[in-house]
Batch of 2 targets.
Target 1
Amino acid sequence: MPRKVAFSVKQKKKQLQERRQRKQARSNADNDTDSDSGDVQGGRAVEGTAGSAITVNKINQQPSDVPDRRLDPNRFRLHFFKMSDKELEKKREECLRFLTSLPENALETDIDDIYKPGTVLDLPKRPAWTSATSKQVLEQREDEYFQRYLDNIFAVYGPRELSFFEMNLETWRQLWRVTEMSDIMLLVTDIRHPALHFSPALYDHVTRDLNKPMILVLNKVDLAPLGLVVAWKDYFHKHFPKLRIVFFTSYAEASSHQGSLQQSKCLNKGHKTGRRIKSVGSRELLEACENLVEGKAVDLSSWRSKVESQEVGKDEDADVDTSEAPTSAAETLTDDSGHVRYRDGVLTIGCVGYPNVGKSSLINGLVGKKVVSVSKTPGHTKHFQTIFLTPTVKLCDCPGLVFPSLIEKPLQVLAGIFPVAHVRDPYSCIAYLASRINLTLILKLTHPKADRLNGKDLKWTAYDICNEWAVKCGYNTARGARPDIYRAANHILRMTVEGRLRLNFTPPGYTESKEAWRDHPEVIVLLKRGQSVIRGYRREVDTLLSSDTDEEEVMSSAASANQKPEEAETLDDSNPFSTLSGDLGCEET
């Protein structure tokens, strides 16, 4: 074996200098483009109603020296407008004020208040084109149209009113391609914030302009009470009658604590972990698609066989079918826009939605194993990708898109739309969260002035919460060893995004009729389904305990997850699926 070449300190110093120079060069290039005006697509500034330039903040930059723009990894970076330093300073001063607890009905949200249907906050639609249109002409039309679209928005709303929304035309192009090629659209939303993730403009465009069916997937149902899940379904049915609604959640082969058991077992045997993925809601999604394509030349029997084999626990290694799709007369089915439906007898299902709602996880759950990459960071999926679920079913994963709206920016951070690592003012997000849930009680924090005030008139600020959480978790700054409140604030935000801190928004009128929704007949059906999932978990734990893995090792692995196997259903009595979620702790993930 060849001997390794020594790497001296001088060489290391030179390497670090070159790296800093490349980073500075990229930063200068961004600043040069940001200083211009009139073109958002190039990362430049746009004139707003207040007369000040809106600077675009380009997020998730990757090192790249590729001359070809088509191969540039930064081509699909998130483009959000950047908050000014003056506005940030004002928000930080507001975080020094005492927090006020809001009533429970403050969590009630209405879609009309967020998106203002019929206004300039609309969906950018692809300009008309034909097969005879050249690529250069089409791209020029798209650039000009998108610029006018942004100008119309900023002519009515200023940066303080608007929420963060995607300003990168390349990402919108991915949505246009997916909507054009799909036969059925899946709009995936997070059950904690479904009104935030549902764009009425997209619904109208798909169902009215493109005349295609849309299925609303209420994902991550393990993170909300079942009564609230059913209430949101009823809300969407009343306001958007063309929707078909499906509940869904995907999870690893075992729950969080059982994943530790499985991991310890597989590591001892030298096996890979986390290969298989299960899902709740696959059958309901299959039945919804069967109803939509009934009478068409599409055979979904292979998909049904796959779902049934997964439900009975048959190990088929969750292989993706790669055989050629059969040809059929479906090629003659065309819609008004010229799209050929069910081409070659294949059903194409497009998955669209906001970042971090679980589109890629949904595809992995349907397939039964990891076939597309997932991440907790918004904007991880850069380009639309397709995978054949069966020879007659093709899934298309679209990058997450943030539509223009009027919600508060801290909520976008808490909903996982804006990357936590890029948040410049996490304390306003903590204030927003603490005013809506009892954060100090959940985190078991002690007020810094509790001894002097003897438990009377203990008022918290956002900085107090971050300071006490930093002390509790041992987060200290490198210099001075003072409590690292910035790190503590980011940790709380990440726990909220992951679902370990529950911030669930509700439909209008839910607070008054909460008990009625809790006793809804459909809740009983979901409870029975969840109980069957729990029984499946227990069988997996029993299998691990009866295998060649030492019982003490299994129990110690469960203890490391802060939960015993037999305590799975105690996380949330109102939702059996809550066994799929993690536990609260100071350890950063």
Target 2
Amino acid sequence: MKKRRILALGLSAALTVGLLAGCGGGTQPTETSPTGGETTPVETGAVATGTNSIRVCFASEPETMDPSLNRTVDGNVMISHLFEGLYKWVDSDPSGDGRNGATAELDLGMAAAEPEVTDNGDGTFTYTFTLRDDAKWSDGQPVTANDFVYSWRRLVDPATASPYNTIIAMVKNANEIIAGELPKEELGVSAPDDHTFVVELTYNCPYFLDICAFPNTMPLREDIVEGNTTWTDPSTYVTNGPFKMESWTHDAEIVMVPNENYYDVSSISIESLTFALMDDANAQLTAFNSGDLDFMQNPPPDEVATLLADGTLIAGDYLGTYYACFNNQKAPFDNVLVRKAFNLAIDRNYIVEMVTQAGEIPAGAWVPESVVDAEGTSGPDFREVGGDFWSVENTDEAYQANCDQARELLAQAGYPNGEGFPETTYLYNTDDKHQAVAEALQQMWSNVLGVNVTLNNQDWNVFLETRSAGDYSICRNGWIADYNDPVSFLDMFMTDNGNNDAHYSNPEYDAMMTTVLSDSDAAGRMELMHQAETLLCDTDCAIAPLYYYSQPYMVSDRVHGMYYTPLGNFIFTYATVE
């Protein structure tokens, strides 16, 4: 998924159960959608619509509400309130109200107990889950193991074309089914009875239980899905999570109310949870100030510093990276010298200090800080072990050295001082913050390389389609981990991965990651991932990471009990309002 900053507020607490190594879009869900807005010092505590209701904003109209097809963080947040997987995220520090860091930890959801794990002796493992007896759909029918079998098969079915199908690549035959070599019925999942769900893994995947809490692996009812082609009608949107969809007014709001058939509905105190669908940051801030919104993210860049200083804006933990995405198959960015020149010309310190200003960290590589390495949380993280591939030292001398090398590389590519460089456009989705970053990049590439880059913005859903289709030269991108393991950031650049927006293809890289995705040896797979990252960022320079995300957000003083994960999932299920 997409986005990150790094404040060590309490990440270790959040990375307890199940977060063994690193969602990358996976991950990843892929990335956050647009938000923003101008801010002035706010007075929180005003009452949003409905005295016992919560109104939040994460993005404009979602790309999809189909759990199998979702690839965005805003979609993840919404879907996680409507559906529940074998596992779910719970609050490990209920006293924090979401204001003291990412405190979520993995716990049982639809599963009644921890799975029985069998080592088959040949490198494969079998997980046997028992479902809870009181799990029901919002229409009152029981949740069965066959609902998981259907959902997981649908996820890898080539006919579904899910961009997240490789999220369960560790399941037996998943890769062969995705490639069209086997029928979906050959996936290593089964339901011996209504309450038993069996999964066969090709190796001892360290983050498998995290995957069991991910939206793409949540159960689906075959009789509902096969007759539901839009996923927009609340009357046919049957859920098994804490909420159900009451209404969807397109480009305005999605209203959720407690699911009376949810096993823990008695613990839900709010009457409704409304997702306002807005992409205008100024409008969001105005709504927050007036009490029409209880939660929003990413205020206008010009106001971030002030809001951080007065405590209105919280810079939370986030495992993700913001990056410029080169189309590796389209001239002139099919030339590695051009890609390297554009990458080195970026002043990352200027961007985080003068443009974004929300605690982001300049990126010297792809995988962000706080993603674990072979020794787990007890040892150095993946970034500390791997180091940087270009200098992010905050000095004029270091940046000038990068610029000198960038100009030399562009000249070697045949464009001395930018002469003869073809017309190039940088694409981003409509948002004040993304526009500010785009304008900074435009100026840097002009000043350093003598290249004229024009800017173009599109609405969120149009932008996603344009980027996926490769109809661009350079575009904005971001990725948020789906689980705490480097593979969440690295498998997405395999040739056929649905999230490979850079259209990067290197057989050596594919071979490395194929081995990683079937390797139970922690040290061996980590070493391969360091080699893969070197190939991706240094040798081929397929992308230009700008910074490691932070997660700025504002929450009304009247809201208590909200919590979030460093993977970008905010949870309001058990929140209360004054």
